[in-house]
Amino acid sequence: MAYAYDFFIDENPDVIERVDRRGREALQEGSLRTSRKIALNYVQRRFPALTLLAQQRVAHISQIEPLETLLDQLFGATNEDEARKLLEAQGN
């Protein structure tokens, strides 16, 4: 009985597009969540004094590209002052 409407889902372009869009959105949200967690864990381990600042700044990044750029920059930061400047720039 659960399969009685499969034809509607499988053959309706509007339904297919909507399911695809929601799938893409879910993947993007998952990637964003994972990248936020990586950024926070990295800062917490490498620059513990900046943990609260990182939590505040990273939470407001809503696109994966800027977050990945920040991660790359944080990985290259050689000291806490550099990391602080990178995180503070996220609030501007």
List the helices and strands and how they pair.
Blueprint: H1 6-11, H2 13-46, H3 51-59, H4 64-76, H5 80-89
Question: Are there runs of 5+ residues with pLDDT below 50, and where?
Answer: none
- Biggest sheet: strands, sense, closure? none
* Helix fraction by DSSP (H/I, runs of at least 4): over 70%
Radius of gyration: 19 Å
Total helix count? 5
Order of helices and strands: HHHHH
Let me know the average pLDDT.
87
| Structural class by secondary-structure content | mainly alpha
Strand content: under 5%
3D shape: elongated
Task: Describe this structure in a few short sentences.
The chain is elongated. It is built from 5 helices and no strands.
Can you walk through the features of this model?
This protein is mainly alpha-helical. Helices cover 78% and strands 0% of the residues. The chain has helices at 6-11, 13-46, 51-59, 64-76, 80-89.
Question: What descriptors fit this protein?
Answer:
about 90 residues, mainly alpha, 5 helices, elongated
